[in-house]
Write a structure and sequence with these properties.
heterodimer; A: 213 residues; alpha/beta; Glutaredoxin; 8 helices; B: 326 residues; FAD/NAD(P)-binding domain; 2 domains; eight-stranded mixed β-sheet; five-stranded parallel β-sheet; 6 helices
């Protein structure tokens, strides 16, 4: 079954012609794939086929334990974005970037490829100043129109500073995490396990909060 | 599987013209919905120098799942239509300040728009198209528990209430649409309606009444939302008998309509009894050179096509004003 219909495939294909450098996707799944893991696998295969500048490597969460540890992957399904030199950008998607999240997925790819809107000078400087490990988790649902903005802001910070890791987490795919972090509305952002932000904030405010975490 | 694609390739720096605090614009448009974007296109076509200050491109349109019978489209998704509007605006070299909120507007020989980041922009005329946003209940517990069980976006948050008990406040179209979304997955849905009947369209009421896990409380109102970390219960009053009952629920969705976003113009522009900016048939407010359009105004019927049409009219009125004043 094709994941994209013709119209969406064409739209995505058109946007991907603007892709700059190569982007390498890593996908962590397992041999006996869960339902959503299988869907994501198909999604990624089809997505990667839309541009010759997108690479896709699949790892087995169990068998490739060392890889999972190297990238600090503690759950699957997980998608990671690596740049053309296979450097980890810190950008992760836990769940299928469908629904509204297709937008944050494409934006993430574009930005990793070097095609990105410039940050304001203040924002760029504030991100550079973050000198501790920061882990941002953005909980979303695929039917939430406000969520991609929150995800993209977190991902952008990760891209600009190697000390920052930023995850999109589909609350529907990881209900136990939604319970753990008390997620009852999305987007909800958790920074370093302790700070919570409810709703989508402009990137400047997110950086400010992350810098204090 | 559905993909709600609304992204284009990122704008590179040379294409985006940032608004400049040193420039006196002919027109500054405040807002980003159909009225604002249509006004922007009309101003640029007229060749007046124009700035657009917007929190988010698309406005309420971006949160609308589907749009039916906008002329030219029998059916289109809200994001697709918003995207088309945005692309149409971006054909022009319009100055933009986006992701910014206007907090105060001042009238004088020059009009000044002050933003939440401390910056300010100047213009000879203004078009206010700030739209509407979800109305709050205004009861104890609502603000404290927002995002902790108090929700305003059923399409966003319904999946998080699977198997739980929830209250939906409001019996209009948005309330009943939310109740339907929730009834599909929640254990039980209680609709609290102020009036003696539901005011939603018949098709929605019929769909809602097909569920067996719902209760509708007519002529009731929410008094308080109770909970420490998250919502634990809701106190609901019977408006006929005055009795207050406590309902143990994990969530409450508030769908009681919209309030006009007029905080930045309070005290400056004349508002009607609904808090909407009063405009005449040429989109003029009580202040010369300040125009308004779309859902934030007193114009009846809040429709995308009406907001767009009003935006065009406001732009033409503003251009005419500039010509006459110079």
């Amino acid at each position: 079954m094709a994941i994209f219909d013709d119209k969406v495939r064409k739209q995505i294909g058109d946007i991907l012609t603007k892709l700059g450098d190569r982007v390498n996707l890593l996908y962590f799944t397992q041999e006996m794939e869960c339902g959503i893991c299988k869907d994501i696998h198909e999604f990624l295969n089809e997505f990667a086929s839309l541009s010759d500048r997108i690479g896709l490597t699949t790892f087995d969460f169990v068998k490739d334990r060392d890889k999972a540890e190297h990238y600090k992957i503690d759950k699957i399904p997980a998608i990671l974005l690596l740049d053309k030199n296979d450097n980890d950008t810190g950008i992760r998607f836990f769940g299928l970037p469908g629904g509204y999240e297709i937008n944050s997925f494409i934006q993430g790819l574009m930005e990793v490829s070097g095609v990105k809107e410039p940050l304001s000078q203040g924002a760029a400087e504030m991100i550079k100043k973050i000198d501790r490990d920061v882990h941002i988790q953005v909980f979303i649902s695929l039917t939430c129109p406000y969520c991609p903005a929150a995800v993209s802001a977190a991902h952008r910070i990760a891209l600009e500073n190697p000390r920052v890791r930023a995850d999109m987490v589909d609350a529907g795919v990881f209900p136990q995490l939604a319970v753990k972090y008390n997620v009852s509305s999305v987007p909800k952002t958790i920074i370093n396990e302790k700070i919570e932000i409810i709703g989508a904030e402009p990137i400047e405010k997110l950086i400010e909060t992350a810098a204090k975490a | 599987m559905e993909f709600k694609l609304n992204i284009g390739a990122p704008d590179t720096e040379d294409r985006v013209l940032r608004m400049d605090a040193g420039v006196l614009y002919d027109v500054i448009i405040v807002g980003g919905g159909p009225a604002a974007l249509t006004a922007a296109v009309y101003c640029m076509r007229k060749g007046v120098s124009t700035g657009l200050i917007t929190m988010d491109f698309g406005g309420q349109l971006s949160d609308t799942s589907t749009v039916e019978n906008y002329m030219g489209y029998s059916y289109i998704t809200g994001v697709d239509l918003a995207n088309k509007f945005k692309e149409q605006v971006r054909q022009f070299e319009i100055a933009i300040a986006d992701g910014k909120k206007a907090v105060a507007i001042e009238d004088g020989t020059e009009k000044v728009v002050r933003l939440d980041d401390g910056s300010a922009f100047r213009a000879r005329s203004l078009i206010i198209t700030t739209g509407k946003s979800s109305r709050k209940l205004g009861v104890p517990g609502e603000i404290e528990l927002t995002g902790r069980g108090v929700a305003y976006c059923a399409i966003c948050d319904a999946p998080l209430f699977a198997g739980k008990r929830v209250v939906v406040v409001g019996g209009g179209n948005s309330g009943i649409e939310s109740a339907i979304d929730l009834a599909k997955i929640a254990e039980h849905v209680t609709v609290v309606q102020f009036l003696p009947e539901l005011t939603a369209d018949r098709v929605l009421v019929d769909a809602f009444e097909a569920f067996t896990n719902t209760t509708t409380l007519y002529e009731h109102e929410v008094m308080e939302i109770v909970g420490t970390q998250t919502v634990e219960s809701v106190k609901i009053r019977n408006r006929v008998t005055g009795d207050v009952s406590t309902h143990e629920v994990q969530g409450i969705f508030i769908e009681i309509g919209l309030d006009p976003n007029t905080a930045s113009v309070k005290g400056l522009l004349k508002l009607n009894e609904f808090g909407e900016i009063e405009v005449d048939c040429a989109c003029r407010t009580n202040r010369p050179g300040i125009f308004a359009a779309g859902d934030v105004t007193s114009v009846p019927f809040k429709q995308i096509i009406i907001a767009a049409g009003e935006g065009a009219k406001a732009a033409l009125s503003a251009c005419e004003y500039i010509l006459r004043e110079s």
